[in-house]
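[agent] plan:
  1. take the single chain provided in the ticket
  2. run structure prediction with default settings
  3. attach structure tokens to the ticket
  4. add a short note for the reviewer (M.T.)
[agent] executing step 1
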Amino acid sequence: MTVNENTARAVVAEIRDAIVRGDFVPNQRLVEADLSEQFGASRAAVRSALVELANEGLVERVQNRGARVRAVSLAEAVEISEVRMAVEGLCAAKAAEHVTREQAKQLKAIGRAMRTAVSHGDVLGYSRLNQELHRLVREVSGQRTAQDVLERLRAQSVRHQFRLAMHPGRPSRSLPEHLAIIDAICAHDAAGAEEAARAHLRSVIAALREVDQSSVRTLP
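[agent] step 2 finished; step 3 output follows
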């Protein structure tokens, strides 16, 4: 890999992370000159990064107007969750087959921390633990292709995920779903882990629609 390729890859990661964090919001223009200055990279590296992120579905290029952060509709967020249902179910099943004693301890520790976050009303802490749990399940599964797919899908729907995390009562509703995934994986119950993961994503889809309807009702 050449230095230029390393640089381009680093810029892709930096812009992707900024989009995932919400530093760049949907439909925000991504000006090459500004990004070049912000990330200390050449215009060519930034341009290459925007092409790569467009291929990932995070950025869209508009003729004669440059690039902008792609907005994901509710319908697309639901579709993404439906794909996640299948792939995360696979990862949970594989994780149940491969989980080690030490990994089971890590999963159970996350579960205990999630319980504490919910009891203390720590919504942001719960959201971070949620992401940590899903990341660990993917890691334990050993399914690298599935990991890559899920990372891309997560990045595309990050704004909807944030709205969902902030929805009143959502952590309390999702906690038992996450604990069921943890329990099945630690019990080496592949079928149970897959069904628990699918049940969680079905709940996510229902909640996405609920949050969207709630937003419509609160419009002036």
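[agent] step 4 note for reviewer: Confidence is low (pLDDT under 50) at residues 216-220.
[agent] ticket updated
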